[in-house]
Amino acid sequence: MTFLKRLLDFYINSSIHVSLAVYALVRMTGYLFSIDAIEAPAMFAFFGTIVGYNFVKYDALARRHKLQIRTELKLIAALSFLSFLATGYFFFQLEHRTKIIALTFLILTMLYTLPFFPNRKNARNWAGVKIYIVALCWVGVTLFLPVINAGIPIGSEVLLVAVQRFILIFVLILIFEIIDLQVDDPNLKTVPQQIGVEKTKIVGSILLFVFMLLGFFQIEFNFAILFSRLALVLLAFLFLMFADERKSKYYSSFWVESIPVFWLILLLVFS
Question: Which domain holds residue 230?
Answer without folding.
Answer: 2-270
